[in-house]
Write a structure and sequence with these properties.
This protein is mostly helical. It contains 10 helices and no strands. The chain starts with 5 loop residues before the first helix and ends with a helix.
Length: 278
C-alpha cells in the first residue's frame, strides 16, 4: 500500500468515525432507514433531500467527524489538522469556492459541492475523496457547511456555465493553444512548460494571504477541479475564487479556451510518455 500523508489517513479515520453516529440514530427510529446510495463524482447525484432539522443534525455529525479537523469548528479553515497541510483548507465563512460551475464571484451549485466532496483534491491538499459517505450524508454535510456564511442567505446561486460541445482535437488546435497560452500570460504562473515554475509563482497567495502553488500541468491527476476536457474548460471559464486564477470568460473566445484545454492536456500526456520511456 502506498504511503499516504498523515493528515489524509487521519481525515479518513475521522470520517469513518462520523458514519457510525448516524447509524445509531437511525436504529432508534420506527421507520426504516432510507436506502444508501453512493453516486460517483462524475455522475449526476440527483435532487438533494429537503433541508430539515434531522438532515442538519446528520450534517453536523459528519462535519465534526470528517471535516472539523481541517476546516475548524467554525468552518474558517483553522482546524488543528489543517495547520499541518501545505495548502490551507477552505474557509467556508467567506463563501468563496475554488471548484464551481457557476460564474466567477458567485456561489456554487449544490452539485458542485457534491462533486468536490466525492472527488477530493490532490494529495498535497490532504482532502481525500469521501467515497464512503452515502449520498444522503454528503447532502447533509453540504447543508451544514452552508450555515457558516451569510452569503447563502442573501445571494442567489446563478445558472452554471455550460461547456459547449468540444471541437475536434487536432495538432493545429494544440499548436494554437500554445500560442494563446503564451499570449494570455499563463506562463507567468504556470511556467512555459506548465511546471508551475513561472516567474510569479513564488509570490502567489490566496485571498487570505496564505501561499498558493499554481497547477502543474504535467500532472493532470492532481487537478483540483477534474482533468476531463470539460472540467478544464469550466475552470478556465469560471476561474477559481479565492485564488489568483481569474476567469477567462470575457478575455478568450470559446474556441481559444478549447485550444488552451488541448494544449494543457498535451503537456500532461507528454510528461506521462516521457516517464514511461525512462
Amino acid at each position: 500500500m502506498p504511503h499516504l500523508p498523515r493528515q489524509v489517513t487521519r481525515a479518513t479515520a475521522l470520517a469513518f468515525a462520523a458514519l457510525a453516529v448516524p447509524a445509531f440514530a437511525f436504529a432508534a427510529q420506527a421507520a426504516p432507514a432510507p436506502a444508501r446510495s453512493f453516486t460517483p463524482w462524475d455522475k449526476a447525484p440527483g435532487m438533494p433531500p429537503p433541508v430539515t432539522p434531522e438532515l442538519l443534525e446528520i450534517g453536523g455529525r459528519v462535519f465534526r467527524g470528517a471535516c472539523l479537523g481541517c476546516h475548524g469548528e467554525k468552518g474558517n479553515g483553522e482546524g488543528r489538522e489543517g495547520k499541518l497541510l501545505q495548502i490551507p483548507p477552505r474557509d467556508f465563512t467567506q463563501g468563496a469556492f475554488i471548484s464551481r460551475s457557476t460564474p466567477s464571484g458567485s456561489l456554487p451549485l449544490d452539485t458542485d459541492l457534491f462533486r468536490s466532496i466525492r472527488h477530493g483534491f490532490k494529495p498535497a491538499i490532504g482532502m481525500p475523496a469521501f467515497n464512503f459517505l452515502s449520498d444522503r450524508e454528503v447532502w447533509a454535510v453540504i447543508a451544514h457547511l452552508k450555515t457558516f456564511s451569510e452569503r447563502w442567505k442573501t445571494e442567489q446561486v446563478p445558472p452554471p456555465v455550460e461547456a459547449p460541445p468540444a471541437p475536434p482535437r487536432t495538432a493545429a488546435a494544440v499548436k494554437a493553444g500554445a500560442e494563446v497560452y503564451k499570449a494570455t500570460g499563463c506562463a507567468f504562473c504556470h511556467g512555459e512548460k506548465g511546471l508551475a515554475d513561472g516567474s510569479s509563482a513564488p509570490s502567489l497567495t490566496y485571498d487570505s494571504g496564505k501561499p498558493v502553488v499554481p497547477a502543474n500541468f504535467t500532472k493532470l491527476a492532481d487537478f483540483k477541479c477534474g482533468n476531463r476536457p470539460e472540467d478544464i474548460f469550466r475552470t478556465i471559464t469560471a476561474g477559481m475564487d479565492g485564488t489568483p486564477m481569474p476567469t477567462f470568460a470575457e478575455a478568450l473566445t470559446i474556441e481559444q479556451r478549447w485550444q488552451i484545454v488541448y494544449f494543457i492536456q498535451s503537456l500532461g500526456e507528454g510528461a506521462a510518455q516521457v516517464a514511461i520511456n525512462r
